[in-house]
Design brief:
The protein has 311 residues and is α/β, with parallel strands linked by helices. 31% of the residues lie in helices and 18% in strands. It contains ten helices and 15 strands. Strands 1, 2, 3, 4, 5, 6, 7, 8, 9, 10 and 11 form an eleven-stranded mixed sheet that branches. Helix 8 links the parallel strand 10 and strand 11. Helix 1 crosses helix 6 and helix 9 runs parallel beside helix 10. It is globular. The chain binds threonylcarbamoyladenylate and magnesium ion. Threonylcarbamoyladenylate (TXA) binds next to strand 5 and strand 6.
Length: 311
């Protein structure tokens, strides 16, 4: 891990596993390294990046104001699948925040990620900027092989891809805006609104249509495979199919995943969408899980994957 941290310090990119999805990391204090993230991803450079840190003790480096409820959230859910959006410090440059006055910070819950972040901090680093390690608009990778598939044509020889196995959660972190009086969920994830309310004792708001804070995940054509994703339809022969194990596969339909519960659904969802592309399927029918908890995040991503370029 010392080697990977040295690569980060040298300005190289290091893709690494987290519990949610794989991230494409760069030294968050190095504008040239961060600029390479944008070019490798093909992502517009006014989209802010999440800074990954080894522990909540580092929050104060990146944030200038941390409300009490954000501290409670950090205590309870870090390391874990949660990103806090806070008023930024001077360290959080425009090249990280996309020019906004806030910064997203997260402590991931994965042994490889934490070892990398700790080694990086020991080497004098402050934090690792990392978006999901996919090309802009594509499905996030949940295995190292998927990262290589997505990015090998764009990475340089000194960049690294660390393999930490398949991600346990499988959908991106819950993003919570902590700049107002009440926490506000900008992107649903494994940390649910109910969990936020229990820990903070406050009402948690959801994103509204007039949000001025940019979340690129909320662009309509995000999280999309090449195959067309259909919701609320009966699958036809030759189409891919993703649904709970309790739902049977109609004859001639290509079953891509049969998760036994919502957690497993989240875990396998992105790899099942990738599988559809590997098999050159034109359409995939997804039966979305109902109810609260991580099902909300799955429905959110399924909707975005389905919202397609019909041209
Ligand atoms: O689970 C995750 O969050 C993964 C892993 C690698 O940590 N990361 C991830 O990063 O999903 P990315 O860049 O693919 O998505 C982060 C989202 C983007 O939509 C970005 O616009 C939003 O977070 N974001 C980052 N900083 C923000 C800020 N200051 N205010 C509002 N949104 C922000
Ligand atoms: Mg992403």
């Amino acid at each position: 891990m010392l080697d990977a941290a040295a690569h980060l310090k040298a300005g190289d990119l290091v893709a690494f596993p987290t519990e949610t999805v794989y991230g494409l990391g760069a030294d968050a204090s190095n504008p040239e390294a961060v600029a390479r993230i944008y070019s490798v991803k093909g992502r517009p450079n006014d989209h802010p990046l999440i800074v990954h840190i080894a522990s909540m003790d580092r929050m104060g480096d990146w944030a200038s104001e941390v409300p009490e409820y954000a501290i409670a959230l950090a205590h309870n859910f870090w390391p874990g699948p949660m990103t806090l959006v806070l008023k930024r410090s001077e360290l959080a440059g425009d090249f990280i925040t996309g020019g906004q006055d806030t910064v997203g910070v997260r402590v991931p819950d994965h042994v490889v990620a934490l070892a990398l972040l700790e080694a990086f901090e020991k080497a004098g680093g402050k934090g690792v900027a990392a978006p999901s390690a996919n090309r802009f608009g594509h499905v996030s990778p949940t295995t190292a092989a998927a990262v290589v598939d997505e990015l090998s044509g764009y990475l340089s020889k000194d960049d690294l891809v660390l393999d930490g196995g398949a991600c346990a959660v499988g959908v991106e972190s819950t993003i919570i805006d902590c700049t107002g009086l009440l926490p506000r969920v900008l992107r649903p994830g494994a940390i649910s609104t109910t969990m936020i309310e229990e820990v903070t004792g406050l009402k948690a708001l959801d994103v509204d249509g007039e949000d001025v804070i940019r979340v690129s995940g909320s662009l309509e054509n995000h999280y999309s495979p090449a195959a067309k994703v259909l919701l609320c339809e009966t699958p036809l022969p030759g189409q891919g199919f993703i649904a709970h194990a309790s739902i049977q596969t109609p004859k001639g339909v290509i079953r891509l995943a049969s998760p036994r519960n919502d957690e497993e659904f989240a875990q396998v969802f992105y790899s099942a969408l990738r599988d559809a592309d590997t098999r050159n399927l034109r359409e995939v029918v997804v039966v979305q899980p109902i109810g609260s908890g991580i099902a909300v995040a799955i429905r959110d991503r399924a909707f975005r994957a389905s919202y397609k370029k019909n041209f």
